C-alpha cells in the first residue's frame, strides 16, 4: 500500500507540473496470464490463453494518457469487481483542484451499482453497453437514424431493464457503421434477425449515458478516444513488463504494477509530452 500511495503522489505531482486540472477519467481492465502458483492467479476470463490462471488488474487513465491508479485482482473476478472502491480511491488521489469531466468505461463496467454511484456523485458518464438480446430488440425498433459521415449513422433511445435495481429509464446512444463502406469499423453485428440484409450490413456500438444535453454524435466522439487506453495497456504489458513480473506474493505483484504503470510509464509519458515530442 505504501508503494501505491507513493506512486499516486508522484502522478499527482506530474499532473500539477503540467497544470492538468480537468480531464476525462477512463476505466479499463486487463488480463495478465500467469504460469506458476502465484497468489491470486486463478482461472477466469482469459481470451488468449483459455484455462490458464491469470490476474485481472483494473486501471484508471486520464484522457491525457497518464495512468492514475491500478489494482491487482484475482483472475476469477469480473471487470467491475470492487470498482466503486477503486473509483473512490482514484478520485481522492488526484490533485485537490482537479475536475473529472466525464467517466468513460467499457462494457465490463456496465453495472447498475456503479452507474447509480456515479449518478449519486453527479458525475457524467459514458459506458459501453453490451449488445444483449433485449437491447438488440430496442435497436431493431429504431426507425430514425442520423447520417454523420459516409457509412456512419447514429440514433438513441431510452430503456429500463426489467430488474428492480434499475429504477428508471436511461439514455442509450447507438452507432451503426456500414460494413462494405467501412470494412475496418468497430462494433458488433446483431445476431437477432441476422438473415435480413439490413441487419447483416452493419456493425453496432452502444453506450449508456446520463448526459441529457449533448447530441448523440458528440457522445460517440467523446467516447471514441477511450480506445487509446488499449495501447497504453499493451505498452505497460510488453514495454514495461507488467505481465512478465509476477511475484509469489499477491501484494508484491501489485507493487510491481504500480511501478510499471504509475512510475515508469508516467515518467516516460511526461518526458515525451514535455521534452521529446512537445505539443
Topology summary:
Elements: H1 2-18, E1 22-29, E2 32-33, E3 42-43, E4 53-55, E5 58-62, E6 67-71, H2 83-93, E7 99-105, H3 112-120, E8 125-128, H4 133-140, E9 146-149, E10 152-159, E11 170-178, H5 197-200, E12 202-209, H6 216-223, H7 228-239, H8 250-276
Parallel strand pairs: 1-7, 7-8
Antiparallel strand pairs: 1-5, 2-4, 3-4, 5-6, 8-12, 9-10, 10-11, 11-12
Helix pairs in contact: 1-8
Beta content? 15-25%
Task: Output the number of helix runs.
Answer: 8
Rg, Cα atoms, Å: 20 Å
Number of strands: 12
Structural class: alpha+beta
Q: What's the shape?
A: globular
Largest sheet: 9 strands, mixed
Task: Enumerate the spans where pLDDT stays under 50 for 5 or more consecutive residues.
Answer: none
Strand order of the largest sheet: 6-5-1-7-8-12-11-10-9
End-to-end C-alpha gap: 35 Å
Fraction of residues in H or I helices:
25-40%
Give the topology string: H per helix, E per strand.
Answer: HEEEEEEHEHEHEEEHEHHH
Please state the average pLDDT score: 89
Key terms for this structure?
279 residues, alpha+beta, three-stranded antiparallel beta sheet, 34% helix, 23% strand
Write a structural description.
The protein has 279 residues and is an alpha+beta fold. Helix content is 34%, strand content 23%. The chain is built from eight helices and twelve strands. The strands form two sheets. The chain has a nine-stranded mixed β-sheet, with helices on both faces. It is globular and about 55 Å long. 34% of the residues are buried.
Amino acid at each position: 500500500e505504501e508503494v501505491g500511495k507513493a506512486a499516486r503522489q508522484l502522478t499527482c505531482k506530474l499532473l500539477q507540473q503540467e497544470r492538468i486540472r480537468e480531464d476525462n477519467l477512463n476505466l479499463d481492465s486487463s488480463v495478465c496470464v500467469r504460469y506458476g502458483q502465484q497468489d491470486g492467479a486463478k482461472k477466469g476470463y482469459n481470451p488468449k490463453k483459455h484455462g490458464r490462471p491469470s490476474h485481472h488488474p483494473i486501471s484508471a487513465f486520464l484522457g491525457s494518457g497518464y495512468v492514475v491508479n491500478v489494482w491487482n485482482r484475482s483472475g476469477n473476478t469480473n471487470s467491475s469487481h470492487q470498482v466503486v472502491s477503486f473509483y473512490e480511491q482514484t478520485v481522492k488521489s488526484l490533485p485537490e483542484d482537479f475536475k473529472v469531466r466525464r467517466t468513460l468505461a467499457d462494457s465490463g463496467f456496465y453495472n447498475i451499482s456503479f452507474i447509480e454511484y456515479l449518478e449519486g456523485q453527479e458525475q457524467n458518464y459514458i459506458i459501453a453497453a453490451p449488445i444483449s438480446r433485449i437491447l438488440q430488440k430496442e435497436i431493431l425498433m429504431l426507425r430514425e437514424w442520423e447520417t454523420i459521415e459516409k457509412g456512419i449513422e447514429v440514433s438513441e433511445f431510452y430503456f429500463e431493464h426489467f430488474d428492480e435495481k434499475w429504477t428508471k429509464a436511461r439514455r442509450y446512444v447507438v452507432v451503426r457503421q456500414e460494413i462494405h463502406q467501412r470494412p475496418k469499423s468497430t462494433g458488433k453485428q446483431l445476431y437477432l434477425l441476422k438473415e435480413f440484409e439490413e441487419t447483416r450490413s452493419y456493425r453496432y456500438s452502444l453506450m449508456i449515458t446520463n448526459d441529457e444535453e449533448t447530441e448523440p454524435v458528440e457522445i460517440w466522439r467523446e467516447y471514441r478516444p477511450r480506445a487509446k487506453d488499449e495501447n497504453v495497456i499493451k505498452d505497460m504489458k510488453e514495454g514495461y513488463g507488467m505481465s512478465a513480473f509476477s511475484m509469489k506474493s499477491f501484494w508484491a505483484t501489485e507493487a510491481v504494477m504500480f511501478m510499471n504503470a504509475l512510475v515508469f510509464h508516467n515518467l516516460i509519458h511526461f518526458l515525451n509530452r514535455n521534452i521529446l515530442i512537445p505539443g
